[in-house]
Amino acid sequence: MNVLTVNIAEAGYEQDKPVIRDVSFYVGAGELVGLIGPNGAGKSTTVKALLGLLRNVKGDVAFGGGERRCAYVPEQPVLYEYMTLWEHMQLAASVHELDDRVFRERAGELLRLFRMEQDRDRLPTGFSKGMQQKMMLIIGFMPKPNLYVVDEPFVGLDPRATKDFLTLLNEERKRGAGVLMSTHVLDTAERISDRFVLINDGTVVAGGTLADVREQARCGADAPLFDCFYALT
Ligand SMILES: Nc1ncnc2c1ncn2[C@@H]1O[C@H](COP(=O)(O)OP(=O)(O)OP(=O)(O)O)[C@@H](O)[C@H]1O
């Protein structure tokens, strides 16, 4: 079963000025798909298009797996200045209609995991960049969705937080959640992704497993993802 199927013919910010073209891929239940490509290639535009945040989209996007469809973890934290971490978490819980017992249980686990228990009643404007990013992850993980769309998670997180995040993501994948992860950190992407979608200049230039991508890039059987990326872009 696919938790996400994307068939975008065209999408962009202004009418008749498409930024991406012919972008098609899927994310199966339990799969992690790495969305990779150079700066300005169209990764964020693809993510915005599939989340329904762009007006000029031609094509179809289908979410599978029933309720609690999708959690989006943005690269730039989105936060309310006058709300504490705990209040942000409560807001997310109410948006996703979690009942209070489930909310408290998950909220406690997530605060513990990301070592933010001491910070729950603080305003996030006083948090470091990494702490703000952890806050976005906590909020994203709370509803236990079928699909996670995660934008560049590795840049602000320290090694310990990265490991905790990946551990949690793996647990979620075992439960059947799929993940679409946009990133520039290719060695990590290579290690954790089941498949890749490589975007360049607004369109998909390669896709599939690492072996598929190596073949499409005419790279050798041991070539790292970085070399394939370089060859294809
Ligand atoms: N709000 C916007 N309005 C108009 N054009 C935009 C807007 N945001 C991005 N673009 C254009 O869309 C193209 C693709 O940008 P996009 O942000 O999707 O790239 P990206 O692959 O996410 O890059 P990066 O790795 O740098 O984040 C670029 O040419 C960019 O200038």
From TrEMBL:
InterPro entries: AAA+_ATPase (IPR003593), ABC_transporter-like_ATP-bd (IPR003439), ABC_transporter-like_CS (IPR017871), ABC_Transporter_VariousFunc (IPR051782), P-loop_NTPase (IPR027417). Signal peptide: none annotated. The keyword Transport applies. GO terms for molecular function: ATP binding; ATP hydrolysis activity. CDD domains: ABC_DR_subfamily_A. Residues 3-226 form the ABC transporter domain. Coiled coil: none annotated. SMART domains: AAA. Keywords: ATP-binding, Nucleotide-binding, Transport. It comes from the Bacteria. This is ABC-2 type transport system ATP-binding protein. It comes from Paenibacillus methanolicus.
